[in-house]
Hints:
Layout: H1 5-27, H2 36-54, H3 56-62, H4 65-88, H5 107-138
Helix pairs in contact: 1-2, 2-3, 2-5, 3-5, 4-5
Amino acid sequence: xxxxxxxxxxxxxxxxxxxxxxxxxxxxxxxxxxxxxxxxxxxxxxxxxxxxxxxxxxxxxxxxxxxxxxxxxxxxxxxxxxxxxxxxxxxxxxxxxxxxxxxxxxxxxxxxxxxxxxxxxxxxxxxxxxxxxxxxxxx
Length: 139
């Protein structure tokens, strides 16, 4: 891919904004359209924009494929633990084990935690795939 000055300027300005928007989608997915999956894909898009503008080597120095794979695996393991904790509490898989018997309690906090875990998992996985494909395309 031929890198131009316009491409570098646009991606260096747009990339951080896309990252912030992805974090917004994850954080406020419980009250507005968005959530963990959408926010994670937008986060990965921000990483992809930075990789296109600055080069995959610069971005891979900060976000190594090994780190992204570990982050994704850890988020997946935590999601399984949260799902199984709901089953152990008698609420079903991914049931809100933080809520009390009458249904009151930390409903919103539970959804925000799930959105965060899903956003991290999806963002790390898609960023890993995109950076690997871009690195292979540069060769």
